[in-house]
Amino acid sequence: MLTLFDSTQDFLLTSLQLMSALFIFVIGLAALWAVYAYLVDSTQKSQAIRRNYPVIGRFRYLFERLGEFFRQYFFAMDREELPFNRAQRNWVYRAAKDVDNTVAFGSTRNLTVPGQVIFVNCPFPTLGEDAVPPQPITIGPFARQPYTIAGLFHISGMSYGAISKPALEALGKGAAQAGCWLNTGEGGLSRYHLERGTDLVFQIGTAKYGVRDSAGNLSDERLQAVAAHPQVRMFEIKLSQGAKPGKGGILPAAKVTPEIAEIRGIPVGVDSISPNRHPDVGNTAELLDLIDRVRRVTGKPVGFKVVLGAYGWLDELLGMVHARGVASAPDFITVDSADGGTGAAPMPLMDDMGLPLRVSLPMLVDKLNEYGLRERIRVIASGKLITPADVAWALCIGADFITSARGFMFALGCIQALQCNKNTCPTGITTHQRKFQRGLHAPTKAVRVAAYVQNLSKEVGIIAHSCGVRSPRELRRFHAHLVQADGRTIGLDQHHPEAKRRVVESLSQPGQPGHAADLAAAGSVSAANSPIAPPADLWGRLEITRPPQIEHAAEERKVPLQ
């Protein structure tokens, strides 16, 4: 009878023999593969590296693929990576998890890099008991159902289809808890948007998904059906976005599931490519016509999203608003930065097209001040604004609200794997593969979304109080400095001199004579009874003739746009 020792010895010897045989088998397979790869590589003619260095040349592509991940975790410094560095991501992760977000032993940020923003502290900062939360702002005073909200930070457009069901559920529930709005993106309205009672901004993309008829044209009936949901508070017409200014949205075929296809009204399993602009909007007049139509049909505030490029266009737009009357103005303008985004896009558009937000935001605010429409048209800043300093900068420049998409993706657990366009997102955020989605637990992530909003708003308040103001929206350009090439700093108010602010009180304070609601009830406001006059040289800037109702000292003339 075999002893226990003998049995164990036999088992181990058998296991070693099997493992040895398996090892030899694997080595043999590897050798066979190497011979096959050598023959293939040395005879193929499409890749020079593989032809000159058979087998070994194949590892170049493996290392190139793995390099993204090795750089992120092993080689890149905290402040080096793009589009978001480790320090930025870690701040969002900690804020979303509601854990201690303090740092020790000094800043790792290089404060001498040209272009860095530094806030200037006040010798007598605001006491905690004197601080006040952000005050509510009303958007759309001429709409039948204006929208009033106090929150600073909101969720930018991410379509259902571009992001997954659990990601959308987490964003919706988290937004409801935090009291911020959720932009639907251009992919239409799904039942997941409506489940939590979240305030929604419905985005109308160039393909008009969700509000189109069978021919692809904008449908008043579909608009009314969407507006009938009380959660839908505003409509945003997307002219362009940071990832691809001048090109429509792209949803790869792998993401066009039967459910997505039904919501959008498109074929299953076919690339969803939107037109590069609205076919029915070919000039500024037609844009204002579309804004008026959507506002009239829905009764809700309507604005547009744009990456600014052509400088003179703002003069044309705002001049035409004065010609038609302030009631015709967009209720808000979302200005996006040409820094790219989550969407799939050609590299020339992602890298080289459009103005970055650091240029376009002050330009927009200054033009609105110049034309006296700053209180009529609300400004929403979007584009790589994910930390308190980013948001505080935008408030200093003059934004009313800030939106972010990628910041909330980090709150959901995004690791910047750069797989957004491939349906292989390892964290389940931008994929429809169940094996990846199962890792994203929507109830847990919803809590993190809400915590991110709350902690970011809290720390923006800390910056504001250090600058000596009571509330974040009281921040002005002189509260921040910009680092120059020689290491010295210059105030933002000197770098971006603010145009004289011509406030239209009647458009922002209910109960006063000529308030927007009264003007809207009386019908369209013409240039003749516009609450303020446009700049004296306006009609000389525009390729339109000055309306006879407006008297200017300058002679009536018609010249090309400067």
Structure overview:
With 562 residues, the chain is of the alpha/beta class. 38% of the residues lie in helices and 10% in strands. The chain is built from 19 helices and 15 strands. The chain has helices spanning 4-43, 48-52, 58-75, 86-97, 165-178, 191-194, 220-227, 258-264, 284-298, 312-324, 347-352, 357-370, 388-397, 406-412, 434-437, 442-466, 492-495, 516-521, 538-541; strands at 117-119, 137-139, 147-149, 153-155, 182-183, 200-204, 232-238, 250-251, 272-273, 302-306, 332-336, 378-382, 401-404, 480-483, 489-491. The strands form four sheets. Strands 4-13-12-11-10-7-6-5 form an eight-stranded parallel beta sheet. The chain is globular and about 95 Å long. It comes from Lamprobacter modestohalophilus.
